[in-house]
UniProtKB/TrEMBL annotation:
<keyword id="KW-0804">Transcription</keyword>
<dbReference type="InterPro" id="IPR036390">
    <property type="entry name" value="WH_DNA-bd_sf"/>
</dbReference>
<keyword id="KW-0805">Transcription regulation</keyword>
<dbReference type="Pfam" id="PF00126">
    <property type="entry name" value="HTH_1"/>
</dbReference>
<feature type="domain" description="HTH lysR-type">
    <location>
        <begin position="1"/>
        <end position="58"/>
    </location>
</feature>
<keyword id="KW-0238">DNA-binding</keyword>
<comment type="similarity">
    <text>Belongs to the LysR transcriptional regulatory family.</text>
</comment>
<protein>
    <submittedName>
        <fullName>DNA-binding transcriptional regulator, LysR family</fullName>
    </submittedName>
</protein>
<dbReference type="GO" id="GO:0003700">
    <property type="term" value="F:DNA-binding transcription factor activity"/>
</dbReference>
<dbReference type="Pfam" id="PF03466">
    <property type="entry name" value="LysR_substrate"/>
</dbReference>
<dbReference type="InterPro" id="IPR005119">
    <property type="entry name" value="LysR_subst-bd"/>
</dbReference>
<dbReference type="GO" id="GO:0000976">
    <property type="term" value="F:transcription cis-regulatory region binding"/>
</dbReference>
<dbReference type="InterPro" id="IPR000847">
    <property type="entry name" value="LysR_HTH_N"/>
</dbReference>
<dbReference type="InterPro" id="IPR036388">
    <property type="entry name" value="WH-like_DNA-bd_sf"/>
</dbReference>
Length: 286
């Protein structure tokens, strides 16, 4: 077995599907199946079983997968140690970034990272903050940029805090919001609880199920088209031309949304991690 085999097994575990794994690794399904059979013959073990629902790792396969991931980690640690001895910043990092944050900040972060540190191999994925947080906790990511409050014992850096605002199309600026459809956004429960609290404190009972979207940008676009009103953080409002009202709770506390950079403490001092952290800090408010 070699590193490509380790990568293949990891991808199979994530996708539970031969076809999707082959597409992810840019190989044919036939080539992947042959390589999997070759590994099974080499180790004299059945790694996976197939069904209509996808593939499932056998007990032996789970053991092989566990050791393959351990070998991957050892090899990457060796590379990171070697890279740290060189005269320039290099090495690899696996980063997960909030899909909403990525829409407004990630492009500049990656452009600056490539410009200043061209030898860093940054493997970046976007997803919901909840999903990224869970993957960070189990070691699928080295570093993450997430929005909202999550418990974390490792390295943590607050990148930004912004106001949460009510937005309305200019033509509806004088219309009572009770008369307009509410455009809700699916996000983590803690944030939705804050929105519900604001509703209760202002005696509002909008229907949150009729229009429920998955991103800040989609909510803003709907409001711009005059579909209704919404509650979104400031990060998505730089080009919005309608009415924007920052929100506060009944006790006077501002309704805010924070973005954090999280990293495992044992690797936070690696040169490539420090480089990514510095670039992210510099772009936090842009």
């Amino acid at each position: 077995m070699d590193e490509k085999d380790f990568e293949m097994l990891d991808a199979l575990d994530k996708t539970k599907n031969i076809t999707r794994t082959a597409e992810m690794l840019y190989v044919t399904q036939s080539a992947l199946s042959k390589r999997l059979a070759s590994i099974e013959n080499e180790l004299n073990a059945r790694i996976v079983v197939r069904s209509r629902q996808g593939i499932h790792f056998t007990a032996e396969g789970e053991i092989i997968l566990k050791h393959a991931r351990r070998a991957q980690a050892v090899l990457q640690d060796m590379r990171n140690t070697l890279d740290a001895q060189r005269g320039y910043v290099c090495g690899s990092l696996r980063a997960g970034v909030s899909i909403n944050y990525s829409a407004y900040r990630l492009g500049k972060i990656l452009a600056d990272l490539h410009m200043e540190y061209p030898h860093i191999n940054a493997q970046v994925s976007t997803d919901t903050s909840v999903s990224i947080y869970h993957k960070l906790c189990i070691g699928e990511y080295d570093i993450a940029i997430i929005r909202g409050e999550f418990p974390w014992d490792g390295f943590s850096q607050k990148l930004a805090t912004e106001r949460v605002c009510m937005i309305v199309n200019s033509k509806d600026a004088d219309v009572p919001i009770q008369e307009l459809p509410f455009i809700s956004r699916r996000t983590e429960q803690a944030y939705e609880n804050q929105v519900s609290r604001w509703f209760r404190e202002h005696d509002l009972r909008p229907d949150t199920g009729n229009i429920s979207l998955g991103s800040i940008g989609a909510c803003v676009q709907m409001v711009e088209q005059g579909v209704g009103w919404s509650i979104v953080p400031e990060i998505g409002l730089s080009k919005f031309s309608g009415k924007v009202t920052p929100l506060s709770f009944a006790d006077g506390t501002e309704f805010t949304r924070s973005t954090y950079l999280l990293c495992h403490s044992d690797i936070a001092e690696l040169p490539q991690m420090k480089a990514f952290i510095d670039i992210a800090r510099n772009n936090a408010g842009r």
